[in-house]
Design brief:
heterodimer, A: about 325 residues, mainly alpha, 14 helices, globular, B: about 300 residues, ABC transporter involved in vitamin B12 uptake, BtuC, two-stranded antiparallel sheet, 11 helices, amino-acid transport (chain B), membrane (chain B), transport (chain B), transmembrane (chain B)
């Protein structure tokens, strides 16, 4: 796929040694971790947790778009459904938060398998339209189903005790749980990208007929990456339900699918760190513009247009080009 | 009158009529998408916003300039079409050499901007539009009551769809268009101005969306989000029909509207999702779509 070649910045070639992480990636991850451990002392912790959830969501989405070359316009379905299931499990079934999050994540994976196995039957923009349509179906289901609470959503979700021991009502415990989940998720995605599986994905993205002729069962790879992406998006959504103690229709609506596309596009698709930067920028922007009503939508639209017209590599993609290092 | 499967005929035909009206909108909108996709190879995500724009232009023409509905039928699609031409010249044109996904992302952004601006100005509560006198009232057909405004929507959209089909499939202009869809370079070599044709095709597809907006003005509430959810259903319609055939888009649009209407009678809870379920089934059985050519 020509576009993604360009997005990853053509001449920048991965200086990946077998098995190991390049030194500058280790440095960035370590720096991020230090920054995030210090962050709650300077910023409102809930705000940082929101960024973390969306960073994981965007990284999961980027796994599919940036490395699988598949543009899903319906990732809100997995994010939102996991959020509902997690909230329901914690509130009605009284499960501990970690079990509730696992429930939500698994349901997102199953949903991803169902939708993915249908959607991969078409390519390109049809794939985008199909995923969007199925996500809309999930939205209507959430609107009508009994357990989602319709327009009200599921409110006052208890945070509970982690493993039945650690009280998550304490802001610090919750913060470090969310940090651990997001970081583990992102590292897992990093591992997937740089595994042999990830290399095959990139081969399929660049030239699908050639990958087929080399004997790869392309559809299995596509479905696998789709399910992984949906599952990790679900992990982000389920965690968000615990943080905000709320699961609502916003999480499952198509605007949410659009937002995650925007985060990835702005940060740089096909880069490891781009979606994290994109999520931080978009969440911060929403935070400051929340009182301006429809202006958020207008500005998001403008960012889309500017990114597509002038800035297709995204923020991290541009930095990666300057420093001549894959980021 | 007889009862059909325990459903009074009034309810049945009433819902079928509503289904046919929804089908009219699906048909016009999916036709516009198909025409644009044929030549430009992009999916026009702005289509829903342009449909909304058509309705708002109609409302503004009446309330600011006193132009009646019948003139709006002509002026509003042309006005919306011109905005489309401008968008194509300014933005979309620069993306043809890239992956088609960028066209989708760009038009999605443009849709957000358009919808956002109208939300900011008009809010999200609907604006009423006074239907012209000729369209108020209706006829009693014995088995059901047929309001004129609704009959008009179905007739007007059927006429426009068939006219579009005729122009594309049966005229010389349409032949150029179909040829350019197959091989733009070769058609250009014959002296046809292909870039101009692409611009005008986009304008025409967008004008169709605007026309649907004018038709919607007297029967639905005019609000900035009226196109948002509709366009997603139309995407599903397009996936079901496949975009290879003009007549296919029209038939699929009307057909799915009717099926949706029937679902509302027999299983109301499923009416919102029936089209998506059909999409899933079509993907299982015939992934290229009912009228689609395999890619």
């Amino acid at each position: 796929m020509t576009a993604t070649t360009e997005a990853t910045g053509g001449p920048v070639v991965a200086q990946q040694t077998a098995g190991g992480m390049p030194a500058h990636h280790i440095a960035i991850f370590a720096g991020l971790l230090v920054l995030l451990i210090a962050a709650p002392f300077f910023f409102y912790p809930i705000f940082i947790m929101k960024i973390l959830c969306f960073a994981l969501f965007a990284c999961a989405f980027n796994l599919l778009l940036g490395y699988g070359g598949l543009l899903s316009f319906g990732h809100a379905a997995y994010f939102g459904m996991a959020s509902y299931v997690c909230a329901h499990a914690a509130k009605v079934w009284g499960l501990t938060p970690e079990l509730a999050i696992i429930c939500g994540t698994l349901v997102a994976g199953v949903l991803g398998f169902l939708i993915g196995s249908l959607a991969i039957r078409r390519q390109g923009i049809y794939f985008a339209m199909i995923t969007l349509a199925f996500a809309q179906m999930v939205y209507f289901f959430s609107l009508q189903a009994e357990f989602t609470g319709g327009e009200d959503g599921i409110q006052a979700v208890p945070r509970g005790h982690l493993f039945g021991l650690i009280d998550l009502r304490s802001q610090e415990s919750l913060y470090f749980l969310v940090l651990a989940i997001a970081f583990a998720g992102i590292l897992l995605i990093y591992r997937i990208i740089h595994s042999p599986f990830g290399q095959v994905l990139k081969a399929i993205r660049e030239n699908e007929p050639r990958a087929i002729s080399l004997g790869y069962r392309v559809n299995r790879y596509k479905l696998a990456v789709f399910v992984l992406s949906a599952t990790l998006a679900g992990l982000a959504g389920a965690t968000k339900a615990i943080v905000f103690q709320l699961a609502s229709l916003t999480d499952v609506y198509w605007t949410m699918s659009g937002e995650v596309v925007l985060m990835t596009l702005l940060g740089g698709m096909g880069t490891v760190f781009g979606p994290i930067v994109g999520a931080a920028v978009i969440v911060t922007m929403q935070n400051y513009l929340a009182t301006f009503g429809a202006w958020v939508t207008i500005i998001q639209g403008l960012i889309f247009v500017v990114s597509v017209m002038l800035f297709r590599e995204g923020i991290v993609g541009v930095i990666s080009k300057w420093t001549r290092k894959p980021l | 009158m007889f009862e059909l499967l325990g459903i009074p005929p009034q309810a049945l035909f009433g819902q079928l009529l509503l289904g046919l009206i929804n089908g009219s909108f699906y048909a016009i909108l999916s036709l516009g998408l198909a025409v644009i996709f044929g030549l430009l190879n992009i999916i026009n995500f702005t289509h829903g916003a342009q449909y909304m724009l058509g309705a708002f232009v109609t409302w503004m023409l009446l309330n600011y300039l006193g132009v009646n509905y019948w003139w709006s039928l002509l002026i509003a699609p042309v006005a919306v079409g011109i905005t489309g031409v401008i968008l194509e010249r300014l933005f979309i044109r620069r993306l043809y050499h890239l992956d088609h996904l960028y066209g989708l992302l760009l038009t999605f952004g443009l849709a957000l901007i358009t919808t956002g601006i109208f939300k900011q100005i008009f809010g999200v509560s609907g604006l009423p539009y006074q239907a012209p006198p000729l369209l108020s009232g209706g006829h009693n057909l014995g088995f059901m009551y047929l309001p004129n405004s609704r009959a008009w929507v179905i007739i007007a959209s059927a006429v426009v769809c068939l006219a579009t089909w005729f122009v594309i499939e049966k005229t010389k202009l349409g032949a150029y268009l179909r040829a350019a869809t197959e091989n733009p370079t070769l058609v250009g070599a014959f002296g046809v101005n292909v870039p101009l044709m692409i611009t005008l095709t986009y304008g025409f597809g967008v004008a169709l969306a605007g026309f649907a907006g004018v038709l919607a003005a007297p029967i639905y509430a005019i609000n900035p989000v009226m196109g948002e959810n509709l366009i997603i259903v139309v995407f599903a319609v397009v996936v079901i029909g496949g975009m290879g055939s003009i007549l296919g888009s029209i038939v699929t649009g009307f057909g799915l509207g009717l099926i949706e209407g029937l679902t509302r009678v027999f299983y109301p809870e499923g009416s919102a999702v029936v089209i998506f379920v059909i999409m899933a089934l079509v993907l299982l059985v015939k992934p290229a779509g009912l009228f689609g050519r395999t890619a």
